[in-house]
Every structure is written in C-alpha cells, then in structure tokens.
Give the backbone structure.
Amino acid sequence: MCGIVGYIGNKNVAEVLINGLRRLEYRGYDSVGIAVLNSKLIVQKQKGKVSELNAVLNYDEFESCNIGIGHTRWATHGEPNDINAHPHTDCNGQIALVHNGIIENYAALKKILLQHNHIIKSETDTEVLVHLIEYYHQTMPLVDAVQKTLTKVEGTYGIVVISKKEPDKLVAARNGSPLIIGVGDNEMIVASDASAIVEHTRNVIYVSDGEIIEITRNNVKTYDLAKHNIEKLTDTIDWDIADIEKQGFAHFMLKEIFEQPETIQNAFRGRILLEEGKTRLDGLRLTEDELNAIRRIIFIACGTSWHAGLIGEYLIEEYARIPVEVEYASEFRYRSPILEKGDLVIVISQSGETADTLAALREAKARGVKVLGITNVVGSTIARESDGGVYIHAGPEIGVASTKAFTSQITVLILLTFYLARRRYMTADAGREFLQELIQAPQLVKKILDKNDEIKEIAKLYHTHRNFLYLGRGIQFPVALEGALKLKEISYIHAEGYPAAEMKHGPIALIDENMPVVFIAVRDEVYQKVISNMQEVKARKGNIVAIATEGDEDIKKYANHVFYVPATRKIVSPLLTVIPLQLLAYHIAVLRGCNVDQPRNLAKSVTVE
Ligand code: G6P
C-alpha cells in the first residue's frame, strides 16, 4: 500500500509529483507529501488526500525545481497525521525519503539511532531509514549510504531518496514493494506503478527485489545489495492515459462495471478454438506430461480474487473432475501446507503485488511445486515470479473495489476449465456448446447493464438499512460472498454472504422485517432448494431481492423485488449474476454519500502482510 513517486527532469516537479500521486491514491489516502530540491530541501506534507495538499501548494515556489519525491500513505505504524506523513527527513533537513512497506526491525534501529543523538520526529517505522542514510552519507555517496542502510534493515520496502549534497539524482530501492522506472527523454520518473508514469513515457524498467537504482535525468544504473552492477532491459507499456481516466463516468468503479462486456471479451479473445471446442492458454507453459500429472489444484488468493478462486473450484471439479482447494494466501503461508507431487498451485491476483499472495507463491515454489499466476498487471511481481500463467487483460482497475478484474478472472478460469476438461472427460461437442455460451456472455452482460436504473430503484429502497444478507447455492455461493463484500467495502453496511441452506444454522436468527436478503436464484439444478430457503426468509418477514432468470414469473410470489438476468448455462452464469450485485453496492454507496473509489481504510493493492 502507499504510493511513491520520484521525478527528475525539466517539468515543474511539484505538478508531476501531485499528478503522479493522484494516480497512485488508490494505494492509500491517509496522508500525502512531497519533497523537492533547489538550493534547499522543501518538504510539504499533511494528513488527508492529494487534493487537500494540492489546494495549498504554491506551484510558483517550485518553478525552478527539477527533482523531487512524493508519497500517499496507507497508515501502518503511527496514526495518519502531519508528522507521520512522508517524506521523512534526516536531522539536518538535507535528505528526504519516501517508503512503501514495513521496516520490521525499526524499534531496534531506532534505539541505536537515539543513542547516537538522532532526533526522531515521527512514530513511523520509516523514519529510521533516513537517519541511517544520514549517518552513512556523511562519509560516502548517497547510493552507497542507501546500500549500507539496506544491509541493516529487515522488512519490505520500496523507497526513493534525494539528498541536497547530490541534487542531480534519485536513489531508489526495492524489496517486496513494487517499483517501476519510466525512462523519458531527458527525464526519469520512478513510481509504485505504471499509472503515474504513462503520461510521461511508456518505456519502463521493472525493478526487482534486492535492487538499488541510481537515477539521473538521462541514466539509470542498477546494483544488487552487494553493489554489483546489474543490466536491465527496458519494456513498453501497452496501454495509455485514456485507460486510466474516468471518461465521463461519475466514478472509476462505475466506469469499470460498464467496461465489462469489453473486458470479458478481452479475457477470451484469441484463446478460443471453437471448431475443436478447445481453448489455448500458451502462457501456462505446461508440457502434456505435466498436464496429465495434475492430481490436485490449489488456488491461492485474497479478497475478490479469492472469490474468483472459489468459482474456479466449482468449475474445475465439476467439468474437469480434478480436486481443487482454495486457500487464503495469508493462511496458507503461515501453516505448514502439504504440497505433493501432482499438485499445481495457481495464485490469483489482480495487482500481482499482494504481499500475502506473493509470499504464498514463494512458499509453494520453495516446496517444489509449479506455480501459475492469473494476474492483470503486466510485469507485476507475481506475473514475473510465476512459472507460467495467464493475463486477464482487464486494463488498469482503479476503483478500490474490484469489479471488472473479477469477471475477467472468472473468464480465464472458465477457459482453464475447458483447457483441462477437454484433456480429460469433456467431448468436443460439449466443449463447443459451452464455449458458444461464453462467446455470448459480453452481449448478455451488456443487456444487464442496460437495466442499471432498475437496480438504482432497488438501492433507493434499501440504502438506509444497516445489515444485508446475500445467499446463493453452488456456484452462486461465491457470487453471494462477492456481492456482500462489494457492499461492505464501499457503503460500510454490514453484509454477510452465506450458502443459502447454511443460513438456517445461524443467520436466520437475524431475519426480521429490517433485514434485506439478496438471493441469487437463477434456474439451475438447485433452484427449487433456493426457493425453499426464500420461503423460510419470507416466513420471517425478511425483505427479499431476487436475482432470477428471465421468464421466471413464479419467483415474484416470494420475492419483494426481482431483477432478471438472461438464461445461461451454469458455467458462465456467475459472469451475469454478479453484475446486478456490483451495481447494487455502487448505488447504495452513492446514495449514502460514501467515497466509492476510495473507501475508508482500504487500499487497492495490499503490499503489507
Ligand atoms: C484488496 C483490494 C481488493 C482485492 C484484494 C486482493 O483488498 O481492495 O479489491 O480483491 O486486495 O488483491 P489482488 O490484487 O491480489 O487481487
């Protein structure tokens, strides 16, 4: 979490930093700050959002400054206030540093620094870094001082440092927190992700863990932690600024919900061999022998990506008949997981940077199994460290609550299901039939989005409620979980997702006339069972919102409100049923006056464990 940015070049540095921080604000928005150099080091930082700092900045003051760093914070150590805001500076106000990550041994380092009369101003774990650099920088160049400092540090970091003594360079380093360098024409920009870079250049260098980078306006030198030179290649980003603009939508989340017909298509484009009823996923890089040897698949993920993994479990077990387990990354890594020959681990992560998911990937690799990654962000750490994988090609997702990435992940999991099923039990005819359904899905999603106003009306009736229950069975159970997560993330209403039948073992006690219950009740093999559960809720005066299949008039007998989705086969149904739930959460949050794209306490990319 936290977004960091550094710039050196001819543009007004404050403008570049503030624009960069705006793009990175989805990573945290507890406080914000910049530090720039001209004849002196100027630091301006405060609690609150980028817009609040922007409102008080005097840009003229920075006209002659060509180098600086910036930070937007998601607080871990120390409450969000002005003093704890980054950048942090040394005792003499000569060096400034921004940090994303956690310095685990900061307390021990702080003790030593205090003994050496350093004045530590904040409660953060970060500040010790800048004081250690100060200590070493007395006798050595900045890059060496940073290198020395990092040999004393335990934890994770992405850092950028500037020093008055060497006003022509930025020094950056990475261990566990993402960092990318944009290589421009006589300018360089370093940032936590490409969204802050792309308006300046599309040529980038991905920084890897254990690397220190010395950046001048026309040169980048990379070293390892022992200060050996490393050669790096430049990559090109394949999307542009329009992809990270709101394009007329009130919020990024709404824009991303409405992009789904296109993003679902992008996830399967070029990967369907319709004639053969098969899919191709070249990036998996698995041999036929390796594919045949799979005995168990373990999905590992967090948040919404974990819900996608649950849908993958239903799909792969039913159609490819391979046992599947779905693990929370944070749990997987801290027990002693049993991984055996024949196991295949697949990590799912939109950002490709989630700390727990990355650690789980490394844990699985260390135990000798192949690890594949399903990610969105090209060049992300998880994408680079996996043995193979699939990009979901959803484009940048800015809204903190994940929407289009979820449906793209499901699409890829459907493709993976065919990939495996057709090698095992599924016939070419069945494959063809199912794939036809997937190809239709974007159009059907569009039809649902066209009825956005119907959902808005339902939202108007329920936005003041304090609790919600979401119920589904089978493959719709993870969809219920995702619907509940969306609502609590952005509207702060308590919401629980439950398997519809399991409701009788607890949540039913909560049901009365004040409890809205959202049922996913499409016509599938468990439909009648869901209807029974609906009656149980109705008998207790719960308010029922049903997501039902077009043409199902019967359901009106039980539900207070019905939202219809087109009939499809089960395999693609979650792609449709989740759309009204995303819209419901969105409209309720807007009606409650919540900050939809930047919900409190959350961050898009959780790079601390
Ligand atoms: C955070 C985000 C969620 C996301 C989860 C996992 O909690 O707010 O939207 O689902 O992290 O992120 P990942 O990038 O690994 O999918």
